[in-house]
Amino acid sequence: MPSSTSERVQKHRTALRESGLRPVQIWVPDTRRAGFAQECCRQSLLLKNDAQEKETTEWLLAAADTEGWH
Questions:
Q1: pTM of the predicted model as reported, rounded to 2 decimal places
Q2: How many CB atoms neighbour CB 27 within 10 A?
């Protein structure tokens, strides 16, 4: 008799734990939520002429390894 889905999932999770891993739950913004895009735009505009943001962006661009990107 085949095992149930929950039994297979539990077996898989147990194997992961035994290999030294642990589960982590991460909550992130819901990009599908009404107003998400508008809030991103609002926050971006706040940084548009910010000197520290410009410096950080330039550093990130210089440090990024984009070789092979299209």
A1: 0.53
A2: 5
